[in-house]
Amino acid sequence: MANSKKLTLFGLIGITMAFFGTVRSVPTLSITGWTQIFYMLVAAVLFALPIALMSAELSTGFPEEGGPAVWVKKALGEKWSFVTSWLLWAQMFFGMVMVASTVGVLFGYVIDVPSLSSNNLFIFAVILISYWGVTLLNLKFDMVKIAGGWGSIIGVYIPFFFLVGLGVAYMIKNGINPEGYLADFQASNLLPDFSDLGSLAYLSGIIFIFAGVEISSVHANNIENPKRNYPIAVIASVILLVIFNLIAGLTVANGVPMGKMELSNITQPYMIFCQDLGIPPIFVNIISAMILIGVLVQLSAWVLGPSKSMIKVAEDGNLPPFFQKRNSKGIPITFVMIQAIVISLVSVMYIVVPDVNSAFLVITITTTILYCIVYALIAISAIRLRYKLPEINRPFRLGKGNGLMWFVSILALLSVLITIIVSLIPPSILPESFSTGYVIYQVVATVVMVGIALVIYKFKKPSWKRK
């Protein structure tokens, strides 16, 4: 009976793919042209695979609810566990601004006024309206339960299927577009242009495609024969994600004219493909509306998810009683309201930064840096727990001895370090005048987010613990 509840190998591959199914990241991939092949392979092999495999061992050995915060607590103590929980909550401030910004872009196409997609003030206003809207709805209704399943199908899978299909049809009809990002192919185009360090910042945006790769590890205990099937599922999922993203990324890079890619505007390639293939423009309006539904459902899922984790951290005595308040439905009202206010403040970036494209990339990179700090803590914890708690049964284990775990952990730490360094290089699409401000912003945002957690922990009181 217990066995019938076990996930099959293909079931886990499907779940893992579902976590990362999105069309939003395709323009960030496409703008790098042929180099996206190199970037995707680097992101998959050096970033996604090591972190997913380490997380699998940790989640099977320490299956308690809480994931990364539990692993770090057992390895490095409560302080760094709190920092981990805090950063997984804080990254959402930037990540949700990025996600909500696409609502404004899509809405412009739904109502057939595309010019709104590049209007900073309009994007800023829509971020505020959409995020506060889904926040207030979630206080009254379980929006993920109401719209989660069909929202993903309508807003993610169908648009992704059409994007790939239209892109392939466009390429079959036209070949390589001489005005696109794939024109004038040379073997050197497959590698980054190291003379233009600003272009390396796109690697950070591409790595963000795999951010959250540790989430699927929660199912590692629930799969048939985890020792054999989990690594197969992870490797197969990463390979499939690389293939699907590259097909979408290369076809979009082929269709959009060089220098015209709009990073936050996934509707742009649909419009180009439909126009070329003679598909009525109303199709673009319909697809935009479908993706818009998917984005709003995703926003809804994030409104409550991280805040529910954080209130457990608060009730353990890491935050004052003010943070431990719930409404009549048990929703952590303080966290939900704080995140809405902070997200509103972060969205001011869309007024400060010169154009929508730049703001979108800058905020994507901030989110990636915060994730990288969490992944560094996970990598250190994975190796530390091998020596601190060697007797724990690990249904999925990296190697018989400790050698393979050392190799995978060091690989993960190196990839995280490289990602953070690359993230601090001002992207080439930013105006020269904003370059210094960019570096200051990224350093300050990171230091402040980590610093707040350390300060709160230093001054925490025993009376904060919920009785």
Automatic annotation (TrEMBL):
It comes from the Bacteria. The keyword Transmembrane applies. Keywords: Cell membrane, Membrane, Transmembrane, Transmembrane helix, Transport. The chain crosses the membrane at residues 35-53, 86-109, 121-139, 151-172, 200-220, 232-253, 282-304, 333-353, 359-383, 404-426, 438-457. GO terms for cellular component: plasma membrane. InterPro entries: AA/rel_permease1, APC_superfamily. It is a multi-pass membrane protein. It is found in: Cell membrane. One of its GO terms (molecular function) is transmembrane transporter activity. PANTHER family: AMINO ACID TRANSPORTER-RELATED (PTHR42770), GLUTAMATE_GAMMA-AMINOBUTYRATE ANTIPORTER-RELATED (PTHR42770:SF15). This is Amino acid permease.
